[in-house]
């Protein structure tokens, strides 16, 4: 639909764009990214014929842009400029109607039924029909933005050029506008080229991204390839972290504020943060910790500050145990949104915890172990599905900085070590009579301060893995012995 070959140029004295080549297919939502001053608006001006390239060629539907008259080009391409600040005292409908000029022989004297139907349709699509008789000066910035979008659409273009279309729009209108554009690209094969400052919106909606730096193409590829941590860091000169979107396969880039942490004041989680009553074991960290857990609340990945292992009766049965747990935590005076909470029927006096240190990093392990529901995982199909609170709850606090990979490896290493304890202690599955590997409701938490030594791996023979293996083995064995003494299994 659009072909750009070796284009250079800009303003009379300066050549802003240098040897730019790319193509845009029909029906694509194509994003143009780049830091301030990188040439995005200049490129859009060349594609819309406002500026002429010094060198190279721009083809629109296979024909050189220079072969189009401005009226002919307006039938193919509409432009929604950035910050449309100049507007007259037209009504909304009059403003939108101006978009029909390319389809008319004269001005309003040739207003046809087709013109009227088109204007009504685009006002409906952009949600502005209810203010069609209002003056555009009475509208908010976001509402006005939609009026100018409707004006561009009234041209019935095949190509739509947008300069930061979500500027002025609140969150819901940003989503609405981009959903709309995406739908038009899919259903009507509208080709959309848009400048984005918000890398996350670009990553979420675009089919293809062009990243400019100093008037040159850094990369032209699919979003996951363009939005790479190192690349964005280099082009935008800022610290950034890439993260997958939690619900759709799109990359998200997160800014990193300057850390408030002072060198030499590393947080160390240890016994001094732990307190225990008959009702619960609580660890309150002075700062949020990065966690991965299978708690009743606070599960998955996140940042949490309070960690609670709550005793419940063996007969505890609640239809909505998550809500009940949240209420319990709230009543204790902790914010459920900042808390990872687990449950156990084990007497909390039988908890086992230990601090382990290896010079540059340390861990703090806390375990409660009940094996009333011990299960051999290789034969668990012989069990009925009943969640009982007789369980091994394992907490590992890492005083160090660990990778996502190390989080997952920590869970594997801790689990392998726990299984070995059950074997060495000859804990059996009561249904199958074979050695158990865990209980039906075991829970685990890995929480890291993300300060100090960087720990890339936590497999069993890595420094962190060795410490976790030993800590889990010792604390689980100890907790199990205390439990067995009391319960006499
Ligand atoms: N009318 C002009 N005359 C001369 N130079 C200009 C003109 N407009 C822009 N420039 C220069 O061209 C370069 C690229 O500007 P452009 O507006 O294309 O950047 P951009 O990537 O759109 O930036 P932003 O993200 O800030 O909107 C800048 O160095 C700018 O100063």
TrEMBL record:
- Which InterPro entries does the record associate with it? AAA+_ATPase, ABC_transporter-like_ATP-bd, ABC_transporter-like_CS, AdoCbi_amidolase, P-loop_NTPase
User: Annotated Gene Ontology MF terms?
Assistant: ATP binding
On the tree of life, the source organism's domain of life is Bacteria
Q: Output the Gene3D superfamilies linked to this UniProt entry.
A: P-loop containing nucleotide triphosphate hydrolases
List, alphabetically, the SUPFAM superfamilies matched. P-loop containing nucleoside triphosphate hydrolases (SSF52540)
Location of the ABC transporter domain:
2-239
- Asked whether the keyword Lipid biosynthesis is assigned, the reply is no
Keywords, alphabetical = ATP-binding, Nucleotide-binding, Translocase, Transport
* Official protein name in the record: Iron complex transport system ATP-binding protein
According to its UniProt entry, this protein's organism is Rossellomorea pakistanensis
């Amino acid at each position: 639909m659009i072909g750009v070959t070796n284009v250079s140029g800009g303003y009379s004295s300066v050549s802003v764009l240098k040897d730019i080549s790319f193509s845009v297919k029909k029906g694509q939502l194509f994003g143009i990214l780049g830091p301030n001053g990188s040439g995005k608006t200049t490129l859009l001006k060349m594609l819309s014929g406002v500026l002429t390239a010094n060198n190279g060629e721009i083809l629109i539907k296979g024909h050189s842009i220079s072969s189009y008259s401005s009226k002919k080009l307006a039938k193919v391409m509409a432009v929604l400029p950035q910050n449309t600040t100049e507007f007259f005292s037209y009504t909304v409908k009059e403003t939108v109607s101006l978009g029909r000029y390319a389809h008319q022989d004269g001005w309003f004297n040739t207003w046809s039924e087709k013109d009227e139907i088109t204007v009504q349709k685009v006002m409906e699509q952009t949600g502005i029909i209810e203010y069609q008789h209002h003056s555009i000066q009475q509208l908010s910035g976001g509402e006005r933005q939609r009026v100018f979008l409707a004006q561009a659409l009234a041209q019935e273009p095949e190509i739509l050029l947008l300069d930061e279309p979500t500027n002025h729009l609140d969150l819901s209108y940003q989503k609405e506008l981009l959903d709309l554009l995406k739908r038009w690209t899919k259903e009507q094969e509208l080709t959309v080229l848009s400048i984005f400052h918000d890398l996350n919106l670009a990553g979420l909606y675009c089919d293809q991204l062009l990243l400019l730096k100093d008037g040159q193409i850094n990369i032209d590829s699919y979003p996951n390839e363009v939005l790479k941590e190192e690349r964005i860091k280099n082009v935008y000169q800022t610290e950034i972290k890439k993260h997958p979107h939690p619900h759709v396969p799109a990359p998200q880039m997160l800014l990193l504020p300057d850390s408030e942490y002072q060198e030499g004041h590393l947080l160390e989680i240890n016994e001094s943060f732990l307190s225990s009553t008959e009702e619960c074991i609580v660890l309150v960290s002075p700062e949020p910790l990065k966690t991965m857990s299978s708690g009743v609340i606070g599960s998955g990945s996140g940042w949490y500050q309070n960690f609670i292992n709550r005793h419940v009766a063996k007969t505890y049965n609640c239809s909505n145990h998550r809500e009940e747990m949240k209420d319990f935590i709230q009543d204790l005076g902790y914010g459920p949104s900042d808390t990872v909470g687990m449950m156990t029927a084990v007497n909390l006096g039988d908890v086992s915890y230990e601090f382990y240190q290896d010079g540059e990093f340390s861990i703090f392990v806390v375990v409660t172990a009940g094996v009333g529901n011990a299960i051999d995982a290789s034969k668990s199909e012989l069990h009925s599905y009943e969640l009982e609170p007789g369980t091994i709850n394992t907490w590992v606090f890492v005083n160090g900085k660990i990778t996502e990979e190390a989080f997952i490896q920590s869970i594997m290493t801790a689990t392998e070590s726990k299984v070995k304890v059950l074997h060495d202690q000859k804990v059996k599955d009561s249904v199958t009579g074979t050695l158990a590997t865990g209980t039906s409701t075991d829970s685990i938490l890995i929480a890291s301060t993300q300060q100090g030594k960087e720990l890339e791996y936590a497999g069993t023979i890595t420094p962190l893995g060795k410490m976790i293996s030993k800590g889990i083995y010792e604390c689980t064995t100890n907790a199990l012995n205390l439990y067995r003494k009391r319960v006499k299994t």
